[in-house]
Specification:
By secondary structure, the chain is an all-beta fold. It has one domain. About 0% of the residues lie in helices and about 25% in strands. The chain is built from no helices and 5 strands. It starts with a strand and ends in a 30-residue tail after the last strand.
Length: about 70
């Protein structure tokens, strides 16, 4: 099984590294180029290209600095 890493970017998108498949609620698959090393998914809701990030978080006031709890 291939490794996939999801990085939570401060005030930005979720960055997914590794081979993934993105499927919408109806079961339709979004095209993701296998040549791309990473895909950025929108967290702010302002992207015109959802579910993908288009950088809109920089101008919409999105503010999120999330950290994993220390266990």
């Amino acid at each position: 099984m291939s490794d996939v890493t999801v990085r939570v970017r401060d005030n930005g998108p979720l960055l997914i590294e590794g081979p993934i498949k993105i499927v919408d609620a109806d079961g339709n698959v979004y095209h993701v180029s296998p040549d791309k090393p990473a895909v950025a998914l929108c967290r702010c809701g302002a992207s015109a290209n959802r579910p993908f990030c288009d950088g809109a978080h920089k101008g919409c006031g999105f503010d999120a600095v999330d950290r994993a709890p220390q266990v």
